[in-house]
Design the sequence.
């Protein structure tokens, strides 16, 4: 009777993966040797499975080669707390939600164990790094495509952080910043439309050839969210027309247009209410040129399930008009944590609440 141990070290795109296979001891009554044609696919832990942003839902599907058709049981012998793997499917899921999960520059060790019906055991180890910083409250995300009904994790572009004021210090904004106390950084005052252009206190820097979209949180990271978008700034010599549609669902507040450059260029087409949740449709048409920028603010958005689809491909149910970006160099979603997501080649995208992180962590 014998035990056989195979250990293979594989270097895969800068990632060292340890795979081991042990054969269980045969019984004395067995007259034939036990063989198992099964192994982990070394490419099954790609680079995009070795990092996850704080608060982001992490998924990794463990795969084996196609030569084995027997029953496999999956488990994790090393993992960060709260990480799970499905016993029969091999799907790893986890969301880093505490300060300890960020773990400095030390990555988390994840060791996967699979066991065959006849007792063979294989293990695979890889290292998972959590990026970003600890932020409590609502975690917002951005996905490509229409994800209002159910979110597809494979379409996740990343997590986003709302720009916020600082209510505790009586932040002042708006024309002249002339209020020295109180919470005057409303969505309207933060946009600060004057002289045919916006003058943001909280948000990304405007550019003559850039379209920008972001969330602004009036007071904290759990309520009073507003969607801001604007195009261009002083310095563009040619007038350009931008067309997009905004469709929101599951909002626990009755959202409205808070700011619209040039009056009616952004308008609410419809709104319905069911069980205290609102579904709304907006159309937005803008022209920006050398004198000014153009944009709008919609909100507030509250609750735990709201989703906002921004249609930049002309496929929404509002009308059949297509988006034209003129000579915009880019259209991006901006996050307060200095990250951004290029959206110029994305037909439509969804922004919304993803999960919640307790501030007591």
Sequence:
């Amino acid at each position: 009777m014998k035990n056989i141990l195979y250990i293979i070290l594989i270097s895969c795109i800068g990632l060292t993966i340890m795979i081991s296979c042990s054969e269980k001891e045969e019984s004395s009554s067995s007259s034939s040797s036990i063989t198992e044609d099964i192994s982990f696919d070394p490419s099954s832990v790609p680079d995009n499975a070795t990092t996850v942003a704080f608060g982001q839902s992490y998924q990794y599907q463990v795969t084996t080669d196609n030569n084995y058709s027997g029953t496999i049981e999956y488990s994790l012998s090393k993992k960060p707390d709260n990480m799970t793997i499905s016993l029969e499917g091999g799907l790893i899921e986890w969301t880093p939600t505490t300060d300890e999960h960020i773990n400095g520059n030390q990555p988390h060790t994840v060791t996967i164990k699979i066991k065959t019906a006849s007792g063979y055991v294989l293990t695979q180890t890889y290292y998972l790094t959590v990026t970003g910083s600890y932020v409590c409250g609502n975690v917002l995300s951005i996905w490509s495509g229409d994800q209002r009904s159910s979110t597809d994790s494979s379409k996740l572009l990343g997590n986003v952080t709302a720009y916020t004021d600082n209510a505790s210090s009586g932040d002042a904004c708006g024309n002249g910043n002339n209020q020295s106390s109180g919470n005057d950084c409303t969505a309207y005052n933060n946009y600060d439309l004057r002289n045919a252009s916006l003058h943001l206190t909280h948000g990304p820097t405007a550019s003559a050839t850039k379209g920008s979209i972001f969330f602004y949180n009036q007071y904290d990271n759990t309520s009073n969210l507003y969607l801001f978008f604007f195009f261009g700034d002083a310095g563009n010599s040619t007038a350009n027309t931008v067309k997009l549609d905004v469709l929101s669902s599951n909002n626990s507040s009755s959202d409205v247009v808070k700011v619209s450059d040039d009056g009616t260029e952004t308008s609410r087409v419809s709104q319905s209410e069911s069980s205290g949740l609102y579904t709304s449709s907006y159309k937005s048409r803008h022209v920006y040129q050398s004198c000014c920028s153009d944009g709008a603010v919609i909100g507030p958005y509250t609750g735990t399930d709201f989703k906002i689809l921004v249609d930049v491909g002309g496929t929404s149910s509002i009308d059949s008009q297509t988006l034209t970006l003129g000579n915009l160099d880019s259209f991006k979603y901006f996050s307060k944590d200095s990250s951004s997501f290029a959206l110029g080649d994305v037909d439509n995208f969804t922004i919304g609440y993803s999960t919640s992180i307790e501030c007591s962590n």
In short: Confidence is low (pLDDT under 50) at residues 1-35, 314-323. The longest strand covers residues 240-251.
